[in-house]
Amino acid sequence: MGVGEPRGGLPLRLKNKVTVITGAGSGMGKATAKLFAAEGAKVICADISGKQDAVAAEIGNAAVPIHTDVANEGDVRKMIATAEDKFGRLDILINNAGFGGPMAPLHEQTAESWDRVHSVNIKGVFFGMKYGITSMLKTGGGAVVNISSASGVVGWKHHSIYGAAKAGVNQLTKAAALDYAGMNIRVNAVVPGTMWTGLVKMSEEFPEPPPGTFRLPGIPMDRWGRAIDIAAAALFLASDEAAYVTGVLLPVDGGYCIGFSGMAAENTGAPSS
Ligand SMILES: NC(=O)c1ccc[n+]([C@@H]2O[C@H](COP(=O)([O-])OP(=O)(O)OC[C@H]3O[C@@H](n4cnc5c(N)ncnc54)[C@H](O)[C@@H]3O)[C@@H](O)[C@H]2O)c1
């Protein structure tokens, strides 16, 4: 049985859980919306692109699309209110919307890039948590999963602004986990490595990596990750199976982060254990 395939009579893992997913029009957000709906969740599919309409239509009655710019506080407030209006509550929030911004050495980056990348990748997560958690507090609990990046854990060349935003998401995750640990609200993050999604431009032409490009030197598992790998990790963290898990940054990266620290230790002669 593969991820997302019929579970042969096993209980649904998210039955009637009301879920908001940002960036649900593409890539990991789309995969997460479809997987969560297959596991019984009601999903609000939020995106700025317009693609959320097709994703919600594909899912059917369990999904509601909403046009949302996560960098806009009013939009985020409306997105959370939509979950409450349509389904009476909010149980799960997946803060997934994001983009990489221009790749360049730091001195060539601009203030405009800084503002736009940070307004979506970290301020958008702050807004989501602020209004999502406010809603969860009214009903006695919930789960937040933030989609971060390996670039927020290790350094990625030419990704300084993006990496700084994602490192901030990791800290928001850990601090908020402590703020609400006694209030039945769990806050965790998934830390993707290099995933074959809309963020990788070639994926528009090739839904799967073309032969020869699927291998990815530098990744211990030697291949790209798939959107469904992130959706599956988000499913675990959002579900009651992770009832005692909070403040975790879960790498889903083919061993990249741990391999990176191993390589660094090798290069410096430092012990790798
Ligand atoms: N693809 C990778 O290699 C990779 C690696 C690490 C982390 N990530 C992170 O994973 C998340 C999902 O990315 P993806 O790879 O699925 O990319 P994607 O481009 O396929 O999907 C991102 C979605 O977010 C939406 N979005 C962008 N800005 C938005 C905004 N202001 N408001 C609402 N929606 C907005 C886009 O329209 C798009 O549908 C992002 O946060 C990204 O930073 C991706």
Q: Strand-and-helix sequence, N→C?
A: EHEHEHEHEHEHEH
Strand order of the largest sheet: 3-2-1-4-5-6-7
Give the structural class.
Answer: alpha/beta
Average pLDDT, all residues:
91
Which ligands, by name, code or SMILES, are bound? Answer: nicotinamide-adenine-dinucleotide
- Strand residues, percent: 5-15%
Number of domains: 1
CATH architecture, by name, is 3-Layer(aba) Sandwich
Key attributes of the depicted protein:
disordered C terminus; single chain; 7-stranded parallel beta sheet; Rossmann fold; binds nicotinamide-adenine-dinucleotide; alpha/beta
Short description:
By secondary structure, the chain is an alpha/beta fold.
Could you walk me through the main structural features you see in this protein, from its secondary elements to its overall organization?
With 273 residues, this protein is α/β, with parallel strands linked by helices. The protein has one domain (18-268): Rossmann fold. The chain has 7 helices and 7 strands; from the N terminus they run βαβαβαβαβαβαβα. The chain has helices at residues 27-38, 52-59, 73-87, 111-139, 160-180, 227-238, 256-268, and strands at residues 18-22, 42-47, 63-67, 92-95, 142-147, 185-192, 249-252. It has a 7-stranded parallel sheet with strand order 3-2-1-4-5-6-7, sandwiched between helices. α6 (227-238) links the parallel β6 and β7 (249-252). α3 (73-87) packs parallel to α4 and α4 packs parallel to α5. It is globular. Residues 267-273 have low confidence and may be disordered. The structure holds nicotinamide-adenine-dinucleotide. Nicotinamide-adenine-dinucleotide is lined by residues 22-23, 25-29, 47-49, 51, 68-71, 96-99, 120, 124, 147, 149, 192, 194-195, 197-200. Residues 22-23, 25-29, 47-49, 51, 68-71, 96-99, 120, 124, 147, 149, 192, 194-195, 197-200 line the site of nicotinamide-adenine-dinucleotide.
